[in-house]
Amino acid sequence: MIITGNNLQAIFNLQHYLGQHFEMKDLGSLNYFLGLEVSRRSDGYFLSQAKYASNLLARLEITDSNTSSTSLDPNVHLTSYDGVPLEDNYSFTVVLRILRYIKGTLGHGLQFSSQSSLVLSSYFDADWVGDLTNQRSTTGYYFYLGDSLISYHSKKQSVVSRFSTISEYRALADATVELLWLRWLLADMGVPQQGPTFIHCDNCSAIQIAHNDVFHERT
């Protein structure tokens, strides 16, 4: 259990109350939780998964392999039918490149600055027919609180989009749902957003549909 707050007396009172009802042990300041390493710095906190990734590489016995600067060639399109077991090692080579990329980025993580603003912003995107097996597109979005990344998501869409605009608009809808939840959460935590939250998109057609209040059957 993680207990956090800016009122030390309230934290102590909660620990005392829980200790009276449950068997508990105070582990001190948060350093490691559910695979995440938490480091305190003068300007905020730094989160990484270096230990988890190192254990994964050691278990696969590739700690001495070369590193890769990118995780995947953007021109590579795999399907579940690619490759023949024990004969075609193409898919294995792709996975190995991802692991080499992880090895080269062990020191990377998320920085949460204490000097960051508390203004929420968002970026989203979607490909079109990225999965060659079922022709589905993939949604991806990021949410920042100031310059700190607080939420991110990448998932294959549940239906097939006939046009790239539709896949982008579906991604916009998913990002909007997450946006509303984050605004409610921040308000509940005492950090209400005073103005509108901007969602950045690179598809003009999706933006025009979002601005048009006329009902469209397919949207």
Pick out its properties:
219 residues; alpha+beta; Nucleotidyltransferase, domain 5; 3 domains; four-stranded antiparallel sheet; four-stranded mixed sheet; 5 helices; 8 strands; 20% strand
- Write the CATH architecture name of the largest domain: 2-Layer Sandwich
Rg value: 22 Å
What overall geometry do the principal axes of the alpha carbons give?
flat
SSE pattern:
HEEEHHEEEEHEH
The CATH topology of the largest domain corresponds to Nucleotidyltransferase, domain 5
The number of strands is: 8
- Assigned CATH superfamily of the largest domain: Ribonuclease H-like superfamily/Ribonuclease H
Name the beta content range.
15-25%
Question: Could you please describe the fold and organization of this structure?
Answer:
This protein has 219 residues and is α+β, with helices and mostly antiparallel strands. It folds into three domains: 30 residues, no CATH class; 80 residues, no CATH class; 96 residues, 2-Layer Sandwich (Nucleotidyltransferase, domain 5). 33% of the residues lie in helices and 20% in strands. It is built from five helices and eight strands. The strands form two sheets. It has a four-stranded antiparallel sheet with strand order 1-2-3-4. A hairpin with a 2-residue loop joins strand 1 and strand 2. Helix 4 packs across helix 5. The longest helix is centred in the C-terminal third of the chain and has 25 residues. The radius of gyration is 22 Å and the shape is flat. It starts with 7 loop residues before the first helix and ends in an 8-residue tail after the last helix.
